[in-house]
Design a protein that fits this description.
With about 200 residues, this protein is mostly beta strands. The protein has one domain. The chain is built from no helices and eleven strands. An eight-stranded antiparallel β-barrel has the order 1-2-3-5-6-8-9-11. It is globular and about 50 Å long.
């Protein structure tokens, strides 16, 4: 699945649309397999379509294969002068899975980094963390290794790390699977593994 970006806009600022060409890497765990990285790729060329309004970047998270009944896919990144990063705004996404037919709730955390004002040529790096949960019935009829997460009050179905880099960068990542496992709390922790 590809990630792209969005948020709240000041009424006076005029939006500037930018398309950032990137290389994406994904390290994915889906708990129909035992915990661990079950699928990975690197150096996949793709794009982020963004809109800059003041100190906020706006975009949309999209999925492949397509999902249905999507809610909350707009996202935003707000500039933080202390870190120099554009930090992803808190929020959740829900949709119906094309695989299981279950309603999935996702949590996203992460950041984008630019060399100066965001533009098609100033992108440097970014990281996205993605957790998938189901609230309600036990999903282990499909996600055999789903884990009940007491903190979240839901079944953990999967976790991914995305790396985004400028297209001239050759990706060569090998992150260990988180042990102990991390959760999307506290919500303010936009980079829980320090990537």
């Amino acid at each position: 699945m590809a990630v792209l970006c969005v948020s709240v806009t000041p009424a006076m600022a005029k939006p500037t649309s930018i398309t950032v060409s990137i290389k994406q890497a994904q390290f994915q765990c889906r708990l129909w397999n035992p915990p661990g990285w079950s699928y990975t790729y690197q150096n996949w060329l793709t794009e982020m379509d963004l809109s800059l309004t003041g100190k906020v970047l706006h975009g949309t998270i999209s999925y492949a294969p397509a999902v249905t009944n999507e809610e909350g896919t707009s996202t935003s990144y707000v500039y933080d002068k202390n870190s120099g990063h554009w930090i992803q705004h808190e929020g959740t996404i829900s949709y119906t899975s094309p695989y299981s037919g279950l309603t999935i709730t996702e949590y996203w955390r992460g950041y984008l980094e630019f060399d100066g004002t965001p533009s098609a040529i100033s992108f440097v790096h970014g990281v996205g963390y993605q957790w998938g949960y189901i609230y309600g019935d036990d999903p282990r009829w499909y996600y055999t290794y789903a884990v009940w997460d007491e903190t979240m009050g839901a079944w953990l179905l999967g976790f991914s790390i995305y790396y985004w880099d400028e297209t001239t960068f050759t990706q060569n990542y090998s992150p260990p699977f988180p042990d102990p496992f991390i959760e999307p709390v506290p919500a303010s922790d936009y980079n829980p593994l320090g990537l």
